[in-house]
Amino acid sequence: MDQIIIHVDMDAFYASVEVRDDPGLRGKPLIIGALPGERGVVATCSYEARRYGIHSAMNIKEAYRLCPGGIYMHPNFEKYKSVSGQLHQIWNSYASALEAIALDEAYLDVTLQAQNLEGARRIAHTIKERTRKELGLTCSIGVAYSKTAAKTASEEKKPDGYFEIPTAEDFVDLIIDRDVRVLYTVGAMTAEKLYAVGIRTVRDIRDNRETVERLLGKQGRWISRLARGEDDRRVTPYRPQDAKSISREVTFQEDVEDPVLLKDVLLLLALCVEHRARRHRLHGNGVTLKLTYSDMRGITRSRNQLRSDSALSIYREAEHLLEHVDKGPVRLIGAGIYDLSTEIERQISMEDLLDDREQRQEEELGMLLEEMGDRYGLDFAGHLDQIYQTDTLHRTIEYMRKYRKRT
C-alpha cells in the first residue's frame, strides 16, 4: 500500500460525552442542540433518538414532533473541546500526520508507523481501547489505502465499529451498487442532478463517465475518479493560517429590528473574532457582515480594510456595513474577517513610537463596553473571558434581546 490511512469517527460524540457524565441519560433518546420552542437545529443525538428518525441538522421543531418524550439539551462546547483535546493526544501518538475534520473526527497517516495492514490494524484497536479506557467513549475506525475509502470504512460498522478496505478493487466491490451519495462530495444537490439523467448508483457513474463529466465539469471528473477507487489525497494537518476567514454568528430566538441591539451584538461578535484571531496570531485585511432576514433571505457584505484585527476596527467596519443594508426583521447576524495573514511583523518607525492609536482604541472600546453594560445592567468588560465561550455568548445575547424588548 502506497499509504495507510486511518479514519477515526467518534460515536454520537456530544451525546456520548453527556451520557458518560450523567449515566442517568443512558438508553434514553437524547437530543443535543436547540431546545423545543427555540429556533435552531439538532447538533447531534444519541442512537436511541435516531430510531425516531432524528438526525443532525434537523429543525428542532421537527425533532420534537418525532420525539416529544426525548431529552433536549443545549450543547456544552467548552466541554466537548476539552475532550477533543484529549482525543487528539491519543491520535497523535500513532500518526505521522493528523488532519482533523471536526472535534470528533480525523484522518491519521500511519504509513510509517504501521508499515503494513496488520500494523495498522493493531494501531486502530489500540486507539479504540485507549479511547474506551481513558475517556469512557467509543469510536468507529476505518483503515484503508485512501482518505475516501477510510471514511467509508469507518461508516460500515457504526457504532463502535472497525472495518478495512485494503485496495481500490475492494472499495469498488463494496460500493458499486450503492447510491451515488456514498461518494465523497456527492451531496443532495449533486445527487439530484445525477438522478435527473438516470444515474443513481456508482455503477451508473462508471458506465456513464462522459455524461457525468459533461454534466458536472471538474466535480464530475473527480466523482468519476472516486467511482474507480482513485484518490491520492494526502493527510494534511490543519494550520490556522490556512483558514480563509474567521467569523462568529448568532441566531436570535425572535427576529430583531432594534438597531441598538444589532450593533451591540456586533460588538460582542467582533470581540470573539479578535480573540480567535489573536490566539493564532492572525490578522485580516477585510471585514464581513452576514445577515439572514425573517423571510430567510441572506446577504453578505464585505469591505477591505488594512489590518482589521482589533475588535474595535472589526466592529466599526461591520457597523458601517450594517447601516447600508436593507432594514427589516433580522433572524441571524454575523461578523468576521477575511484575507488572513500572519505577516504582522514590520519595521518600527519613530511615527509608530509616537502613535498612541492602540491606547486610544482600547480606551474607546472600554467606553463602548461600559455604555453597553449600563444599557443591560451587565459587566461586559469584567467577563470577556466567558463571553468568548459559545454557550455563554448565546445566553448573554438572548438576555440582551429580552431586556431590550421589556424596556
How can the largest sheet be summarized?
Answer: 5 strands, mixed
Q: Per CATH, what is the topology of the largest domain? A: Dna Ligase, domain 1
Number of helices: 17
| CA(first)-CA(last) distance | 67 Å
Helix coverage percent of residues? Answer: 40-55%
CATH architecture identity of the largest domain: 2-Layer Sandwich
Counted up, domains total 3
Shape: globular
For the secondary structure, the number of strands is: 12
Query: Which structural category fits the helices and strands?
Result: alpha+beta
Average of pLDDT:
91
Q: Which CATH class of the largest domain applies here?
A: Alpha Beta
The CATH homologous superfamily of the largest domain is named: DNA polymerase, Y-family, little finger domain
Strand percentage lies at 15-25%
Radius of gyration of CA atoms, rounded to a whole number? 24 Å
Strand order of the largest sheet: 5-6-1-7-8
Q: Secondary-structure element order, as H and E?
A: EHEEHHEHEEHHEHEHHHHEHEEHEHHHH
Unreliable spans: 344-355
Report on this model:
There is one protein chain. The chain is of the alpha+beta class and 407 residues long. Residues 344-355 have low confidence and may be disordered. A hairpin with a 2-residue loop joins strand 5 (97-102) and strand 6. Helix 4 packs antiparallel against helix 6. The chain is 47% helix and 18% strand. The chain has helices spanning 13-21, 47-50, 60-66, 77-92, 111-114, 117-135, 147-156, 168-175, 188-196, 202-207, 209-227, 259-279, 311-323, 350-354, 357-376, 384-387, 390-406, and strands at 5-10, 30-33, 42-45, 71-73, 97-102, 105-109, 139-144, 162-165, 245-256, 286-293, 298-304, 330-338. The longest helix has 21 residues, at 259-279. It has 3 domains: 13-76, 3-Layer(aba) Sandwich (MutS, DNA mismatch repair protein, domain I), CATH 3.40.1170; 172-227, DNA polymerase, domain 1 (Orthogonal Bundle); 240-406, Dna Ligase, domain 1 (2-Layer Sandwich). The protein is globular. Strands 5-6-1-7-8 form a 5-stranded mixed β-sheet. It has a 4-stranded antiparallel β-sheet with strand order 9-12-10-11.
